[in-house]
Amino acid sequence: MKIFHLSDLHLGKMVNGFSMIEDQAHVIEQLYIHIENEKPDVILFAGDLYDRSVPPVQAVELLNSMLYKIIKELKTPVVAISGNHDSGERIGFASTLLKDSDLYIAGVLKKSVSKISLADEFGPVHFYPVPFADPALVREVFGDVSIRTHDMAMKAIVESVSNDINKSERNVALAHGFITSMGADGEDELVLETSESEKPLSIGGTDHISASHFGIFDYTALGHLHGPQKSGSENIRYSGSLIKYSFSEARQKKGITVVEIMEKGNVTSSFIPFSLKRDFRVITGELDELIAAALKEKDGREDYIKAILTDTGELLDPMAKLRSVYPNAMELVRKDRMRNPSSLIGSSVSVRQKSKLDLFESFYEDVTGEKCLPEGIDIIRTLVEKIEEDLDI
Predict the structure, then answer these.
(1) Is 383 helix (H, G, I), strand (E, B) or coil?
(2) Alpha helix locations (H) across 239-305?
(3) Architecture category of domain 2-273 in CATH
(4) Would the pLDDT of 347 be above 80?
(5) Lowest CB count within 10 Å: 11, 89, 258, 313, which one?
(6) Where in the chain is the domain with CATH 3.30.160?
(7) How far apart are the C-alpha atoms of 213 and 152, rounded to whole Å?
(8) pTM of this structure
(9) Where in the chain do CATH 3.60.21.10 domains reside?
(10) Which is nearest to 313 in space by CA: 281, 288, 343?
């Protein structure tokens, strides 16, 4: 059975004020072509279909047209789950009705995970879609007050599935979360590639889930992390996001993870890359040099750009000048004002020990690269005292 595994579409996403709808639609058109050429037996979407719980109209229309094209015109079943960006209730609307049309959506976690069974020449393949759910919801669904972390929550869910699963047949899971290889001491043994555009699921590492829970499945299709990568084993994989959504993803490849499950125990995977309408690029140099280089470019002028300027003097409206050659320039930073990460770590450790004025001075210096003048400090001191007086702090 041939499977297309995708995730983290984030339809409707805005990045630095730029809508990604055109870029997303461009890639989805390529998805149709690959479905026609490769003829997969099923498409898996492992969460974050939308970028927010109440998506914009354009995003809803794009998802609707995509699902119609895949299922009705290309005759390919779809199995999808909600992610942490989705509203499970909205994603799962009419799911009972839609399954008769080969659209299987798990939006809200239930105590019993409903499997979807498809067949090929080797027999049935059972799909277990596990929608995203935080530990509080899992605790309520299973009536287990001991569930406190995402790892404990996923363990409870998979254990409930194991009562139904036939281990002699082929089984596939869909899940959305931070799945990693954890040692006996609870520490991560595997360093996964993360990006700035991924919304944290919890604080302090309690979002980490052991990949060992998925050992009963022949393949696990993961969503949440935006870089395509394996987690724990070759058959537990993130497909990565549909397109790039931050400059931390600039070097990542985006595409489809293609999984082929033959007889029991014989699973292979490959990757089909997408061609992006606009790439995310980081460029470094003096402003005049970057502009001159851009004028010589044949392609790439429409890319999303983060410019790190090495100029040392003052510049007059550098973003406007940059956008004269790169109209989709998103970020501009001055290299001489970038802070050493180690100093930021040190300051975060002692942040609770600093006064409000100290915190303001640090913030001002981080943003401007210069120390605040005494007159500015006096103004802020007066404002802080006034606010504290009004709030009776």
Answers:
(1) helix
(2) 287-296
(3) 4-Layer Sandwich (3.60)
(4) no
(5) 313
(6) 280-337
(7) 10
(8) 0.84
(9) 2-273
(10) 288
